[in-house]
Amino acid sequence: MLSELFIAVSLFAAAASSPAPATPDEFSDSLQAPVDFSADAVTAAVDLSEGVNIEIAYELEGVGHVRLAGHGELDGWATFILLVDDTTILDFGGELAELPEQTWKTLNTEYLATLGHEEAVSLFNSLVQVWTTSEVEQALADAAEAAPSRSVLCDVAGGLSGGSIGVAAGARCWWFFKKFKTCKKVGVGIATSVFGYIKDKCEGAQN
Asked: What is the pTM of this model?
């Protein structure tokens, strides 16, 4: 699953010197270099005792302090917020099933328009790759071991993570190219990979 995740990640990783892409294919082909979190501390807290609570924060060079916080209930209610420094990039509250559509609508495109190509790609690539850092994996494993052995918790954790990040990534692609079907496919691929990765890690820790 990790290798599959990084195949999807390659869609949103860019070399620092790469120019802005001219087409979606060029965009996908040119995005290869992973984000390096080694020099920047990542903090993560996960609690699965009452629904799903996830909070991740890290410093991203050239962008700022990134913070993700999500909460999901077993009845389908969810909240998710993404901030860079003091700017809200995404703020969702509603049914988990509505997360993709609402993410698309509430994404702060005015802020994204202020980012250069390199910074924007770095931000969205980091949002995908941060789930594979040792800090997040350990926090998820510790929470899953302490939680009731219910796979639905892992479904909620995966849906909350994958749904928000995948749609945000697809929206960024659309901002570049205005090609809805192409960018929807990219977003779905990212969402599916993150969902599967988080679900597998969570269920593996519970078994």
From this structure: 0.75
